[in-house]
Amino acid sequence: MINKKWFGILVLLFAMLLVVSACTGDDGDSSNESGKEKDTENATGDKTLIFGRGADSIQLDPSKVTDGESIYVTNQIYDTLVRYEEDSTEVKPALATEWTPSEDGLTWTFQLRDDVTFHDGSEFTAEDVVFNFERWATSAEFIYYGYMFGASEEDLGGIIESVEATSDYEVTFTLSEPNAPFLQTLAMPPFGIASPEAVEEHGEDYFKNPIGTGPFVFSEWVPDDSITVIKNEEYFGDTAKVDKVIFRTIPDNGARFMELQSGSIDMMTGLNPQDIQTIDADENLQIIERPSMNVSYMAMNTDKEGPLAEKEVRQAINLAIDKEKLVSLYEGIGKPAKNPLPPSLWGFNDDIEDYGYDIEKAKELLAEAGFADGFDITLNTFSNPRPYMPQPKVSAQAIQEMLKEVNINVEIIESDWDTHLSLTENGEHDMAFLGWTGDNGDPDNFLYVLLDKDNAKVGSAGNIAFYKNDEVHDLLKAAQTEMDQEKRTELYLEAQELIHEDAPWFPIAHTTPPIAANQKVSDYVPHSTGSEPFNMLDIQE
Amino acid sequence: MARTPEPLPSTGSGETLKKSKPIPLWYEAGLRLIKSKTALVGVIIIVLLVLTAILAPVIATHNPTDQDIVNRYQAPSSAYLLGTDELGRDIFSRIVYGTRISIQIGVIAVGISLVIGVFLGGIAGYYGRWIDQLVMRFIDIMMAFPSILMAIALVAVLGPSLQNAMIAVGIVGIPQFARIVRSAVLSIKENEYIEAAKSIGAKHGRILIQHVLPNCVAPIIVQATLGVGTAILDAAGLSFLGLGAQPPTPEWGAMLSDGRAAIQNAPWVVAFPGLAIFLVVLGFNLFGDGLRDALDPRLKR
Amino acid sequence: MLKYISKRLLMLIPVLIGVSIITFSLIHLIPGDPARSMLGEKATEAQLESLRQELGLNDPYIVQYGRFVGDILQGDLGQSIQSKESIGYELLHKLPATMELTLFAMLLAVTIGILAGVIAAVKQYSWFDNISMTGALFGVSLPIFWLGLMMIWFFSVKLNILPPSGRLTPGTEINTITNFYLLDSLLTGNFRAFKDAFLHLIMPGIALGTIPMAIIARMTRSSMLEVMKQDYIRTADAKGLKTRLIIFRHALKNAFLPVLTVIGLQFGLLLGGAVLTETIFSWPGIGRYVYLAVLGRDYPVVQSTILVVATIFVLVNLLTDLLYKYFDPRIRYE
Question: Interface pTM (ipTM) of the complex?
Answer without folding.
Answer: 0.84
